[in-house]
Amino acid sequence: MNNPLMLDGRKVAQSVKDDLKEKINDLKEWGIIPKLATILVGDDPASATYVKMKSNTCHKIGMESERILLPEETTTDELLDVIQELNEDETVHGILLQHPVPSHINERQAFDAITLEKDVDGVTSHGFGATTFQLGAYPCCTPAAILQVIDYYNLNIEGKHAVVIGRSPILGKPVSMMLLNRNATVTISHSKTEDLSDVVKQADIVVAAVGQPKFVKGEWLKEGAIVLDAGYNPGNIGDADYETCYAKSSAITPVPGGIGPVTISMLLKHTVQAAIKQSEALVTH
Amino acid sequence: MNNPLMLDGRKVAQSVKDDLKEKINDLKEWGIIPKLATILVGDDPASATYVKMKSNTCHKIGMESERILLPEETTTDELLDVIQELNEDETVHGILLQHPVPSHINERQAFDAITLEKDVDGVTSHGFGATTFQLGAYPCCTPAAILQVIDYYNLNIEGKHAVVIGRSPILGKPVSMMLLNRNATVTISHSKTEDLSDVVKQADIVVAAVGQPKFVKGEWLKEGAIVLDAGYNPGNIGDADYETCYAKSSAITPVPGGIGPVTISMLLKHTVQAAIKQSEALVTH
Fold this sequence. Notes:
2 copies of one chain form a homodimer.
Chain A: E1 5-6, H1 9-29, E2 35-41, H2 45-60, E3 64-70, H3 76-88, E4 94-97, H4 107-113, H5 125-132, H6 141-152, E5 161-165, H7 172-181, E6 185-189, H8 196-201, E7 205-208, E8 226-229, H9 242-248, E9 251-252, H10 259-284
Parallel strand pairs in A: 1-9, 2-3, 2-4, 5-6, 5-7, 7-8, 8-9
Function (chains A, B): Catalyzes the oxidation of 5,10-methylenetetrahydrofolate to 5,10-methenyltetrahydrofolate and then the hydrolysis of 5,10-methenyltetrahydrofolate to 10-formyltetrahydrofolate.
EC number (chains A, B): 1.5.1.5, 3.5.4.9
Family (chains A, B): Belongs to the tetrahydrofolate dehydrogenase/cyclohydrolase family.
């Protein structure tokens, strides 16, 4: 019997925040307070909770946040105007547009209106390209959290076969590119994949990013695989069937307490990085 | 014994050009001639030949081209100025910066300075992101050529397992994303991949994009695999060992005469598409 390593996201998140607090203190000596602007359109209660949580976490570690609430009936053009103002506001270092926006708004256009320098949530198509080409953009926060867990626990991925299940613009696609840039061999699978369990069987590392509760079964896994579960379904249930996957794996993230808690800390990390970069740019000019 | 289908790139390219000639004639009735600007920095003879070939092919099908030759000692800033002028020139619909530029130039910065609307060679990081997210950008020409061959021959890729060997920004990465968007399961392998031949053995479709002559061996292939060889090594030699791969495959592109001839026709196709889009934008405003 193997004794799998439980990958503790709360510990990872704490170490990130400890590091950030130091950086934030350093910045304050220069009179700079990293600031995240969040935009919430409409009054979806789950989204409202997420945004509040993000903004509270900012304050807890000494950052500022500006919460912008827009009514349900906001048009795409009105939203674009708000984003443009924030792009130009030198006190704002990062911009987060809470997904999803009401369906009458062109969400992609709104995301892509965020200037690359402030796209700390990694949602722009340009940011995706620049992340893939390793040009210093901020990646999406959940993929970044997955990499952070890998690094914290020193998991060896170079040359290994990672199978990503899911291909969304904010999770499956970017995490695939990030694992590839770390020299993993990467397979991207999805709803149209034939014989998915056979594909997963090849994996040294499985990234579950499919958005369906208990989707990945232990019997699909190669003995000793690493399971990184980015799922977060109603009732705090992951995309992997934890019990059966645990038994087959060498290391696994639980849900809750795995990738989830690290995700918000990535948003803060990117905002601090953005504050540092934008301040340096001001000094240079 | 199987009887593999030889995928004839010259036939594919001809069908693309026939279609383009009609579109170009239509545009001429509106007084619009699609125009590609090519920039060559320095005097590498191979690059000079490529650029000349591209510009000649433009003229042959009734398009215009503007060839800009810059001296070896051109600085990044000077090159950026030239690109900016072309971005603003309404008579230019597409811009191609011939790779590679002299090593003292920041090539990535120069590529990314090309405006998305005129990036007909698909080299910008933004274009890569917008291609991946299917936002109507022009993909890189070799990946586009691979998809064109797939479409011309009606090869079934949905749900199938494609293994791409290589992960360059202009070939391996974009073709992976394009195959994924067509519902293939995609594995991206590379120089750090462990047990590459085992990985290739899983493939229904192999894309050879590694830049090493006769790299992919027939014995690596699953019986009946489709081999798409994007390699073009000195002496007109592909990345696949043609004889042994032919024997195992169900369909295969030769080198020369496979993906290569289709690639230039993709550049022309994107330029014509850009001319149509930019003219429509002018009419609408």
